[in-house]
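REQUEST FORM: STRUCTURE PREDICTION
Request ID: SP-0412
Submitted by: Lab K.M.
Chain count: 1
Length (residues): 423
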Amino acid sequence: MLIPLLSVCALICAILLSLWSRINVGLLALALSYLLGVLGAKMTLRQVMAGFPVPLLLTVLALTLLFGHAQSNGTLGRVAGYAVQLARGRPGLLPPVFFVLGATLGTVGAGNIGAVAMLAPVAMAVAHEAGIPSFLMALMVACGGNAASLSPIAPTGVIASDLMARIGLSGYGLWTYLHCLFAHALVAFLGYLCLGGAQLLVQHPTEAQRERLAQLLANHRQPLHKTHVVTLLVLLGVILAVALAKVEIGAAALCAAVLLSLLRLSDEEEVLRSLPWGTILMVCGMTCLMGILERTGGIDLFTRLIERLSTKQSAPGVIGLCTGVLSAYSSSSGVVLPAFLPVLPKLVQKLGGGDLVALANSVNVGAHLVDVSPLSTLGALCLANAQGDTSRLYRQLLAWGLSMALVGAIYCQVVFGWLHVGS
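STATUS: Completed
RESULT:
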């Protein structure tokens, strides 16, 4: 009984440190896995490391490397610069355009952080020049990128699909992505319209605003050179190989990334330095620690803690609330998903039944709806590129992000718990 209890304590310790400490929780989780497995449960080092997700590591690494090339050589930035011209000088249409652009870039593989990192500098500058409230633009940019976070060919989507496959939910990648996309689109556009966007849509810009906006958009309309065209063709090739030829996404992305390196279409050293090693370590370390919990019986104890908070009927809402609150202060993909998805089968068993797919969707949606908060990477990127009174924007983003924990709980309970959508 001591080892299962210690493993649960180790997991709780890792989660708490992810909220308040700057230490990489993945490294801590790996150290705890070794101590619990080798010294506590008398496992061999090979048995402990059997829980290390090598295929997941290689897939996420390949995807981030590929889109790091496309970002480093300016290809994705030029695509974004052309896409914002779609608003045709109407300020009220610009935030929705950035939402669609963020969702599109995230969907094709850039992921939520990559998409927002590319768009936030342009979007927040455009908002300032066009007289659009910074909060409305930040809301649409961050929600747009996050709407695509669970795309089957985006890093976080790969992580979620891998974790779901480990609990017997293979083949749900597309539906997981669509659930996340719809939830973010719903809250983003409702928030935009209710908090000032509707008024912006019917307003006509002044001549001075129109001139400043036209000049700013012209500055971001840069020509596509041979480097960018070849990069776009390589990215298109990866998407077609995965969609039509059913090539494994990690293998396709790695081959494409190596091809871009061989063609010297970007600075490989710069790309390697920009890879999100911290997030990759968090995911792998936490997944390894959850493997130790499973083998030592710790998952049973952790499940009992969650079981006390919920019933079979209320479980989707409770899961959505718990993951939302934790994700507001820690990493969704690196901490929350690896901690909660593996315990769901045991939770269903202890509750005397339930919908495993609904609970998995509640984890995925609840954990991501709060990520507009300035405490998350997405909100912080928008805040860092904002002009004017950023203290007010910080408070607005924080209030929105924290409120999404409750909104996410209600959404998960209604959509997945009562309506059984997607089950």
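NOTES: The chain has 21 helices and no strands.
Reviewed by: T.R.
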